Backbone:
């Protein structure tokens, strides 16, 4: 499926989103993510590089939102700002009721550990540790006792269908298995928001489909709110909404009802 821009796209505003939700017989609730007037400018050797200027976005609890766009449009940067990994130049960024831009480095770290699950294109598993230990890492970082952390991690390995791979190290696992381990690690702390940056981009088509199906299932069963950056428009079309990031602004690419999403979460 080619990434083409529709002739007419509606702004990614709350009224447009609410209209789409009402068309699905769902009522909008208080947004989990609220971005208003976001600006992000970098200083480079060639001068200022502005990625966002006046970007607005609201995402309701329970939505699965895909963000597509050309390379360099700022998709990953947007996720980094939402996940308190980068700071905006200006604007308001509220995530799970927290003013992300106002957090200190220590507060941002605690916020990520508590509220955010992050999955990258590359799994970034620690090669010297087993799959079970990798999944347990966020719990250990939070101060959970090792025995308890490993028990919780073991349950998550079952969730992603890899209970028999707990003692394997990353180098002994396939690419799809490594990404499933990374997904379990991202969710082991039961975050409210899952951020996924090209989570299937490094996988073949069949494996990518299986990983995305797992992500969909976990999104529903654990009441997540999920934001995915992807170049795959077929996968984007399976989300609640698909947005295109272009020229520093977001616009609706498609409104795609997601079968089985409880109305109470949208």
Residues:
């Amino acid at each position: 499926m080619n990434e083409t821009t529709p002739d007419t796209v509606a702004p990614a505003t709350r009224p447009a989103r609410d209209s789409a939700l009402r068309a699905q017989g769902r009522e909008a609730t208080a947004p989990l993510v609220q971005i208003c007037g976001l600006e992000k400018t970098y200083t480079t050797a060639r001068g200022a590089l502005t990625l966002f200027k006046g970007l607005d976005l609201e995402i309701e609890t329970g939505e699965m939102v895909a963000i597509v766009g050309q390379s360099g449009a700022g998709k990953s940067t947007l996720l980094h700002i939402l996940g308190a990994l980068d700071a905006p130049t200006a604007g308001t960024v509220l995530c799970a009721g927290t003013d992300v831009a106002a957090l200190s480095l220590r507060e941002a770290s605690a916020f990520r550990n508590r509220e955010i699950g992050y999955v990258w294109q590359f799994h970034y598993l620690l090669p010297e540790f087993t799959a079970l230990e990798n999944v347990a890492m966020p719990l250990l970082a939070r101060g959970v006792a090792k025995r308890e952390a490993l028990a919780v991690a073991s349950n998550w390995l079952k969730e992603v269908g890899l209970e028999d791979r707990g003692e394997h190290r990353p180098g002994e696992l396939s690419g799809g298995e490594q990404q499933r381990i990374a997904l379990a690690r991202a969710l082991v702390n039961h975050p409210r928001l899952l951020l996924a940056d090209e989570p299937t981009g490094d996988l073949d088509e069949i494996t990518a489909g299986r990983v995305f199906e797992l992500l969909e299932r976990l999104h529903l069963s654990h009441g997540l709110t999920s934001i995915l950056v992807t170049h795959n428009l077929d996968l984007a079309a399976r989300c609640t909404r698909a947005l295109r990031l272009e020229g520093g602004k977001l616009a609706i690419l498609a409104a795609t009802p997601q079968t089985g999403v409880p109305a109470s979460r949208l």
Remarks:
- The chain has eight helices and ten strands.
- The helical segments are 14-23, 75-82, 105-115, 131-141, 146-159, 175-187, 205-221, 233-236.
- The first strand starts at residue 31 and ends at 44.
- The domain at 14-258 is CATH 3.40.50.300 (Rossmann fold).
